[in-house]
Design goal:
The chain is α+β, with helices and mostly antiparallel strands and 257 residues long. The chain is built from four helices and 17 strands. The chain has a 17-stranded mixed β-sheet that branches. Strand 11 (175-183) and strand 12 form a beta hairpin. Keywords: Amino-acid biosynthesis, Cytoplasm, Isomerase, Lysine biosynthesis.
């Protein structure tokens, strides 16, 4: 099957974008894995498939797939890229709900919605205080996908991330963030993403880290999050919505063989 695609990235978190709004290619798991493979395919942290929207108020339906073929409910960096790809400040229909977007010059903002803080909504496999999990004292929430944040040394991502992603406490696995608080308005973050491993940036992980830091009284509600690929500005508004602002870059367009 020949496919046209666009390669994009948000702070080095890179994506293969397939526009299926006119003709949905109905990609299977094997094809997704092949396209995401950096040696035998195009290579990316996630594949993004656009199709026609099915909900009122949405401009496009966006689905996110990990390199292992599993589907993610949300992806912040890819959502900013889709705001640029579609243009005109679109509202994205995702598994996490409708995500409004905005543009200011080279920066794109996505309203990632309200975090879910109850243990059933993360989800966890048993009732826990999501602010202090019995697992490295992590804090957990859902930003449309499950996140746990460990505070302290961000360099632990490679050593602890793989096992924590698959810990029995997370029945759907989890994205594991390692946050170092630099000031009340600045943190350093690295994220081990479920199904993808360590990435240069994770937008939903940055949102989750700020939400969890605010809940613990570690930062203010607006915070710069510095990741390996660059900075995002995250604001957890008083109405509960989390706004994520950062760049989106188109790398190249291509066609598969």
């Amino acid at each position: 099957m020949t496919l046209s695609f666009t390669k994009m990235h948000g702070l080095g978190n890179d994506f293969v974008v397939i526009d299926g709004r006119q003709n949905d290619p109905a990609l299977d798991t094997a094809t997704i894995r092949h396209l995401c493979d950096r040696r035998f395919g195009i290579g990316c942290d996630q594949l993004v498939l656009l199709t026609a929207p099915t909900l009122a108020g949405a401009d496009v339906h966006v689905r996110f797939f990990n390199p292992d073929g599993s589907e993610a409910g949300a992806c912040g960096n890819a959502s900013r890229c889709m705001a640029k790809f579609v243009g005109g400040a679109p509202t994205l229909q995702t598994a996490a709900g409708l995500l409004p977007t905005a543009q200011d010059g080279d920066l794109f903002t996505v309203d990632m919605g309200k975090p879910r803080l109850d243990w059933q909504d993360v989800p966890l496999s048993k009732a826990c205080d999501t602010l202090h999990l019995p697992l490295h004292d992590a804090a957990a929430c859902s930003m449309g996908n499950p996140h746990a944040t460990l505070f302290g040394d961000a360099s632990r991502a490679e050593t602890l991330g793989p096992a924590l992603e698959r810990d029995p406490l997370f029945p759907e696995r989890a994205n594991i963030g390692f946050a170092q608080i630099l000031s009340p308005t600045h943190m350093r973050l690295r994220v081990w993403e479920r199904g993808a491993g360590l990435t240069l940036a994770c937008g939903s992980g940055a949102c989750a880290a700020v939400v969890n830091a605010v809940r613990r009284g570690l930062t203010e509600r607006t915070c710069t999050v510095t990741m390996d690929g660059g900075d995002l500005r995250i604001t957890w508004r008083e109405d509960g919505h989390v706004l994520m602002t950062g760049p989106a870059v188109t790398v190249f367009h291509g066609t598969t063989a």
